[in-house]
Specification:
Blueprint: E1 3-4, H1 14-30, E2 34-36, H2 39-44, E3 58-61, H3 65-77, E4 82-85, E5 100-103, E6 111-115, E7 120-124, H4 129-136, E8 141-142, H5 155-161, H6 168-171, E9 178-184, E10 190-193, E11 195-197, H7 198-204, H8 210-224, H9 226-232, H10 245-249, E12 254-256, H11 257-261, E13 270-277, E14 279-280, E15 284-292, H12 295-300, H13 302-306, E16 312-317, H14 318-325, H15 333-336, E17 343-351, H16 354-370, E18 376-380, H17 383-394, H18 396-401, E19 408-410, H19 424-437, E20 442-447, E21 452-460, H20 464-483, H21 495-498, H22 502-506, H23 508-521, H24 543-546, H25 574-580, H26 598-603, H27 610-621, H28 626-629, H29 633-640, H30 647-651, H31 658-673, H32 677-683, H33 685-694, H34 706-716, H35 732-738, E22 750-754, H36 759-762, H37 764-776, E23 780-784, H38 791-795, H39 799-816, E24 823-824, H40 828-835, H41 837-841, H42 846-854, H43 858-868, E25 883-887, H44 890-895, H45 899-906, E26 912-915, H46 934-943, H47 945-950, E27 957-960, H48 963-973, E28 977-978, H49 980-989
Parallel strand pairs: 1-2, 3-5, 4-5, 22-23, 22-24, 25-26, 25-27, 27-28
Antiparallel strand pairs: 2-3, 6-7, 7-13, 8-14, 9-10, 9-13, 11-12, 15-17, 15-18, 16-17, 16-20, 19-21, 20-21
Helix pairs in contact: 1-3, 8-23, 19-20, 25-27, 37-49, 39-42, 43-45
């Protein structure tokens, strides 16, 4: 087993420090899994996706159910509470607490058995919902509850929460799909909970164990409180609140403890595995998207939608629509919409009979038309038509969070109410009146089909007045929802946000029965205390209120954060605000799609996710001396595996830019510890590559000599298994300078081609193709080959060096080029540096701003040339009839997207273009060359990219825009990858 050691904070009591040491020692002795009690790990697990933060005593990563039992036993022996945790995406504070956190997601994530015949799956608690769905899909099955967080939500977390989702109108909640649970009880015993008849219950009740007591005494609690159970539960069926005594009371002949424990938030038992039911996966889905001039109008249209037997009815208001237009990830939705709607209503129909689904769609549009609902209905029938719609619909929470301004955030405290849909219009109107009276704004989205809207008011909890206002609104909404027979917690659970009100919601008798349940299951209050019953005030343990004021820190980079600006002259707060934008919604923990976060996909460690690194930085930047804290070695262990792919800048809904944060943190680490030799070498990559080209082919010999490679590994940490770039003597600069003068008509003016530090010296064919294509397109090409952009320096934390290079390059380009003339290049990492990082380095430099505004992708100019008829690819090139499989560069995807590249490839006659969703290649510039990072680099590539390429036949042409991507593809698959301009040159010139 592994222990991560670290100093406990000095402000902790000696008693607490001794308790931590003793418990850590006992856990290390008894567990196979990992035990981490260092201060940084504790801070990473102090938060979930709620507005709360509680620092735990320590964190355990169990490998199996025996580890869970051992951890519960050790914690109980030391009178320490236990907090079970899956993805940590709880919105109400269920997975934070002061005791021992059990992270069941890292290792306990196996699908033990999938039985298609019985339609069941036996899964460990850490299995992710999409992981299960991918495994079940070949059998035409899926897990029924469809949460918007399906790409990171664990089945264990869904069981703890009784999660539901958009499809609950058809598939119900998690409680409806659980057959059996393997759990650890509070006395550390392992038992299986399932559905039993009365004879079996009576037999189990004879056991002299805690399990026996449950079967003996729980029926008595139900019998004694039958009237309270019948009267006390809210009328609406969609409940994720309290203990489900109603489920036991309605069954006379069977006793089902498995379903009873669902929704108990880890307060009654720790689920280690579950046998769950699967449902048939529909082969087709069609979607109607109604456009409305008001939220009320959209909600009014819900009843017509429900009359057509939909699979889901989802609302999204203008707030979220406007936010989606600002993000590259979601901007394509705007192209599909008609006009400027105030609200959209997504109505989905799913099944296997396409004609029947289209009939339902037609019936709905007819009803809406006759009843005057909405001004336009978009029909999305094919998966391609639906992709943008579904992506934005699932991102509602994240998009809303993106509108945070500093510590003014849209908060989850009244976001989970639900009423019968027939009352939803009037209920929503009155809800908005409450918000208006308190001068609050909020975004509205959610599941109209079941009367659940996720309404999150914007508040600043560092302001005591807003804390008071929050509680007042929570009380009013709790009373309002009761008027309509609704529920205060309909899928997000009680947690710390709503448990305080459970006595009022359920009444004294039923609440006291629930307290008896807790006492029966957990006599010593070990399991996640303070949730559901005997909870603290909802205003205790608030995350933002607990954060100390940021101390002054002068930063080299500018951190322009919404609501925080660039910071004061001394940098107070700006860098921390950039990291603290993270609200822990956990999209960086996804796998199987997108790019963020490649290191987490490789390791499944919380500290290797964007949110883990953000939390670590917030901790460091909250210390009395943040400059010294940025030199902490444990902090840099957390930052180390960040590939600086920048995917978080676009895929994280809150735009947490970890690449920039890491560059700044590295620079402070260098201030304290000095700059390593390898960092200096990689920071000087342009000089080294130029030298390598000048001395080629001799310079290529060291890469082929094993002894030299071993020496490079030992002295510089360059991985011996990684092929080195091959230098070309006739580099791009030499070719451009020595070639004969070309005569071509100049119709477009002058364009500057940025001769980057990589392809210029190792793949000059790319630059030659780009230059010649631009000339054929009517451009006069100027080559900028004398100055480095500073990208490599930034990646190694050499920010001052990068700033000097940025200033030099911007001044050179500004003086040597015409105003408004474009600057293009073929290496995305270098080109995008001019329009992104240079602005962070030199935010007030007019030359930098000027050049950043003139950067364009070379693909854009070439597409325009083809469309204008200035450039004509041949119909009969060797590419005709081929499939082009394209992998986009991470920085390109983050900054501008890949649309221009795909458009260029599609203009090559006769080709079929497939853009891979294969994430990051794993190379990430120097990262993949470094010995300690080589294995992770290859693991990232092996996740999706390598399999996708090796699955292609030999005649498929592999395309990649990034030099690192092409190197990694060749190393991992032995397939050459072309740059798009090389292929276009082939199409223009080949016979």
């Amino acid at each position: 087993m592994t222990i991560t050691r670290g100093e406990r904070p000095a402000h902790e009591s000696a008693e607490n420090q001794e308790l931590a040491r003793t418990l850590q020692r006992d856990l290390a002795r008894d567990l196979d899994g990992e035990v981490q009690f260092d201060d940084y790990t504790r801070q990473l697990f102090a938060r979930d996706a709620s507005m709360y933060a509680i620092t735990p005593l320590g964190v355990v990563f169990p490998r199996n159910a025996d580890d869970v039992a051992a951890a519960v036993a050790a914690a109980a022996a030391h009178q320490v509470s236990v907090v079970p945790r899956g993805a940590g995406t709880s919105l109400a504070g269920q997975t934070v607490g002061p005791g021992l956190v059990l992270d069941l997601s890292r290792y306990m994530n196996n699908i033990v058995e999938l039985d298609a015949g019985s339609g069941t799956a036996l899964v460990e608690a850490g299995v992710v919902q999409d992981q299960l769905n991918r495994a079940a899909s070949p059998w035409g099955l899926m897990f029924g509850p469809d949460t918007s967080t399906s790409n990171r939500a664990t089945i264990g977390g869904m069981i703890g929460n009784n999660s539901a989702g958009s499809g609950s109108v058809r598939h119900g909640m998690t409680i409806d799909h659980v057959r059996e649970l393997d759990v650890v009880l509070s006395d550390a015993s392992r038992v299986r909970l399932d559905r039993v008849d009365e004879a079996t219950r009576a037999q189990r009740a004879t056991r002299p164990t805690l399990e026996g007591a449950l079967y003996r005494e729980l029926p008595e609690i139900v019998r004694a409180n039958y009237a309270a159970i019948a009267d006390g539960f809210p009328a609406h069926w969609r409940r994720a609140c309290g203990y489900r005594l109603d489920r036991l009371a309605r069954e006379d002949t069977v006793f089902d403890l498995a379903k009873f424990v669902v929704g108990s938030e880890g307060t009654l038992a720790v689920a280690t595995s579950a046998l769950v039911d699967l449902v048939p996966k529909p082969s087709r889905t069609v979607i109607a998207v109604g456009h409305f001039t008001s939220v009320a109008g959209a909600i009014d249209a819900t009843q017509d939608a429900l009359a057509c037997d939909p699979a889901a009815v989802e609302l999204m208001d203008r707030t979220i629509l406007d936010l989606s237009r600002r993000k590259i990830e979601y901007a394509s939705l705007g192209d599909l919409l008609n006009g400027d709607p105030e609200a959209l209503l997504f109505v989905s129909f799913s099944g296997d009979d396409e004609a029947e689904l289209l009939g339902q769609l037609k019936r709905l549009t007819g009803l809406w038309s006759r009843n005057g609902h909405g001004y336009h209905t978009l029909r999305a029938v094919t998966p391609a038509q639906q992709a943008s719609l579904l992506k934005v619909r699932k991102a509602g929470l994240g998009l809303l969070m993106a509108a945070s301004e500093g510590t003014r955030r849209p908060l989850a405290f009244v976001e989970d109410t639900a009423v019968d849909p027939i009352h939803l219009t009037e209920y929503t109107r009155r809800f908005k009146e409450v918000l208006d009276r308190h001068e609050m704004t909020a975004g509205f989205y959610g599941h109209c089909s079941v009367g659940c809207l996720h309404i999150r008011p914007y508040l600043d909890l560092t302001d005591p007045a807003d804390v008071v206002k929050m509680r007042s609104v929570a009380v009013e909404i709790k009373d309002l929802v009761a008027e309509y027979g609704g529920v205060n917690s309909s899928e997000h659970g009680d947690g710390l946000a709503r448990s305080e009100f459970n006595r009022e919601i359920f009444g004294d008798a039923l609440y006291d029965a629930m307290r008896q349940v807790k006492k029966l299951f957990d006599p010593d209050n070990v399991l996640n205390p303070g949730k559901i019953v005997d909870a603290p005030s909802m205003t205790d343990n608030l995350r933002d209120a607990a954060l100390p004021p940021a101390e002054p820190l002068r930063t080299r980079l500018s951190f322009e954060v919404i609501g925080a600006g660039a910071g004061s002259a001394d940098g107070t707060g700006a860098m921390r605000a950039a990291a603290d934008r993270c609200m822990n919604i956990g999209l960086c923990r996804k796998s199987g799609s997108g790019t963020m976060c490649p290191s987490y996909m490789a390791t499944r460690k919380e500290e290797d996710s964007t949110r883990g690194r953000a939390a670590a930085l917030v901790k460091a930047l909250s210390e009395p001396d943040p400059r010294a804290a940025l030199g902490d070695e444990r902090l840099h262990e957390v930052l180390d595996l960040c590939l600086m792919c920048k995917a978080c800048k676009s895929e994280c809904p809150l735009g947490v830019d970890m690449a920039t944060l890491k560059s700044e943190a590295l620079s402070h680490h260098h201030d304290i510890h000095g700059v390593p030799l390898r960092s200096r070498l990689f920071g000087s990559i342009r000089f080294l590559n130029r030298l390598g080209s000048a001395t080629a082919p001799l310079s290529n010999l060291p890469g082929r000599i094993p002894l030299v490679r071993r020496l490079m590994d030992r002295t510089m940490g360059i991985a011996p298994a990684r092929p080195l770039p091959v230098f070309v003597r006739q580099n791009l600069t030499r070719w451009f300078r020595r070639r004969k003068n070309t005569t071509h008509p100049i119709t477009q003016g002058t364009v500057t081609y940025l001769a980057d530090s990589f392809t210029t010296f190792t793949e000059p064919d790319i630059g030659r193709a780009a230059v010649q294509l631009l000339e054929l397109s009517g451009w006069d090409v100027r080559l900028e080959s004398g100055v480095c952009c500073g990208r490599s320096s930034l990646s190694k934390g050499l920010v001052d060096d990068a700033k000097n290079k940025a200033r030099h390059l911007a001044d050179t380009l500004s003086k040597a080029t015409e105003a408004s003339s474009p600057v293009v290049g073929c290496e995305p990492s270098c080109l995008m540096t001019l329009r992104d990082e240079h602005l962070s380095l030199l935010p007030d430099d007019p030359a930098v701003k000027d050049i950043a505004g003139r950067v364009r992708q070379v693909e854009e100019l070439l597409v325009e040339a083809i469309d204008d008829g200035r450039l004509r690819p041949r119909e009969d090139s060797w590419l005709a009839g081929r499939t082009l499989v394209y992998h986009g560069h991470c920085h390109q995807k983050a900054e501008v997207g890949t649309a221009a590249t795909v458009a260029l490839l599609n203009r090559i006659p006769g080709v079929s273009v497939v853009e891979l969703d294969a994430g990051c290649c794993g190379m990430a510039g120097s990262f993949g060359f470094e010995s300690e990072h080589y294995d992770v680099s290859m693991t990232v590539g092996e996740d999706r990219l390598f399999p996708a390429i090796t699955a292609e036949p030999a005649e498929t042409v592999v395309v990649a825009t990034g030099v690192s991507c092409r190197q990694q593809i060749f190393h991992g698959t032995a397939r050459d990858a072309w740059h798009p301009v090389q292929l276009l040159w082939e199409a223009v010139t080949s016979e």
